[in-house]
Amino acid sequence: MKKALVILLVTVIVLSVAAVAAVMHFNAVSFKTDADTEEEMPVDVTDNFSKQYWQTGDKTLPYWLYVPDGAHKDMPLIVMLHSSYLKADPKISDEENLDNMVNTSVDDIPVYMYNGKLGALPAYVIMPQTPPASCGWAKRGEEMVALVESCCKEYGIDRERISLIGYSMGGTGALELASAYPETFRYASVVAGGLDGVTNSIIPYIKGEGRMKLSDELYPELRVPKKNDPSVYEPEKMKFAYGDKSSTVFTAIAEEKAAAARFEAERISDVAQKLDLGGVNTWLLIGADDTDVSTTVSEGLSRNVGEDLLRCDIIKNCDHGEILKIFLEKKGEILEFLTK
After folding, report:
1. 36, part of any domain
2. What is the mean pLDDT of residues 287-308?
3. How many folded domains does the chain comprise?
4. How far is CA 4 from the centre of its chain?
5. pTM for the whole thing?
6. Per residue in 193-233, pLDDT tens?
7. Are 116 and 68 in contact (CB under 8 A)?
8. Does 190 share its domain with 207?
9. Distance of alpha carbon 88 from alpha carbon 90, whole angstroms
């Protein structure tokens, strides 16, 4: 009898301890807060990448090619465009430039992709690099389309799932190229981007004047003629600029601001029409406190493109650099949008 009681008592104690442990485990899992959640570990995808060099005429377009595991025909293709911080250095080789493009402390979407922060994507990815003299992606449209066409033929890409994504200059390029070539690019994710010549505050370009040169080349309406010789244009002036700090390089007067506003409205209307008629699915992501790129384009496009085609997220209390944190938080949803 005593032996039976001892066995029963031991059994009760064991079951009680197990129950307490189960409750503790349940509490640890169920009440875990965001602060306790470990950061998602990057995936090693470097073996999926290779350096490629696209030849078109006398020009070479270096790019990284990502081939997904288990690649097969009818997969999506994502074109990732870098920001101005990752342009090539003319003093070193294309191969070295490609290495530097992804092995850097600069925050940018192609860097995240190469270093595994975006995971192992079920899509082909190409990440081209522009030369230092190039101030944006808009004028490289024909090259980009030819490169995409080559990839489509070689890898059997699903032509209805070709997309663009970029941040800053890359975001502007994604929007410009998607609107100019809607028959090629069916999806676009624009992170802190706008439209060339109308939305950049010029502040990051005060030293290099890159945006000014691009705008002058693409949009002669913005050039400022010299007072003593109207046939010659001022090399360091545009007809308008955003942000007080830009006044150190550029001048703006009332009538020119009015002309710039009309020009801006016309560009937004034109791009909106192209996105709408072309059926391009577009996702705009920008910080409300961005002083490098105005939110005007995002706001204007959201009013002029159908809700079924365009999503516009303007994040409060977020600037040009901080928007990348938001991008990483939304990366799963954004990448699914680009590959669906």
Report:
1. no
2. 92
3. 2
4. 71
5. 0.76
6. 998 866 443 333 333 344 444 444 545 555 667 778 877 76
7. no
8. no
9. 6
Of the three residues 211, 228, 256, the one that is the final residue of a domain is: 256
Lowest mean pLDDT among 41-45, 187-191, 228-232: 228-232
Note whether 306 and 184 are same-domain residues.
Answer: yes
Same domain? For 219 and 94 the reply is: no
Residues 250-268 have a mean pLDDT of 65
Residue 89, sorted as left (phi over 0), alpha (psi -120 to 50) or beta, turns out to be beta
User: 91-150: per-residue pLDDT in tens?
Assistant: 999 999 999 999 999 999 999 999 999 999 999 999 999 987 776 898 889 999 999 999
Q: If pLDDT is split at 50, 70 and 90, which confidence band does 253 have?
A: very low
Residues 93 and 154 in one domain: yes
DSSP class per residue in 38-86? PPPPPP--GGGEEEEEEEETTEEEEEEEE--TT--TT--EEEEEP-GGG
- The range of the structural domain enclosing residue 212 comes to 203-256
- Which value, to the nearest 10 degrees, does the dihedral of the CA atoms of residues 101, 102, 107, 110 take? 100
Same structural domain, 144 and 61:
yes
* CATH number of the domain that residue 170 is part of: 3.40.50.1820
Q: Percent of the chain, pLDDT > 70?
A: 71
Q: How far apart are CA 126 and CA 79, in angstroms?
A: 5
Q: Which two tokens stand for residue 117?
A: 């922060």
Claim to verify: residue 163 and residue 296 sit in the same structural domain: yes
pLDDT greater at residue 235 or residue 70: 70
| Cα(97)–Cα(91) distance, integer angstroms | 9
Question: CB under 8 Å to 84, separation ≥6 — which residues?
Answer: 135, 168, 169, 204, 205, 210
CB-count burial class (<10 Å; 0-12, 13-18, 19+) for 55? exposed
Clarify whether residues 217 and 285 are in a common domain: no
Q: Taking a C-beta distance cutoff of 8 angstroms, is the pair 170, 149 a contact?
A: no
Instruction: Please check whether residues 132 and 244 belong to one and the same domain.
Output: no
Q: Both ends of the chain: CA-CA distance in Å? A: 70
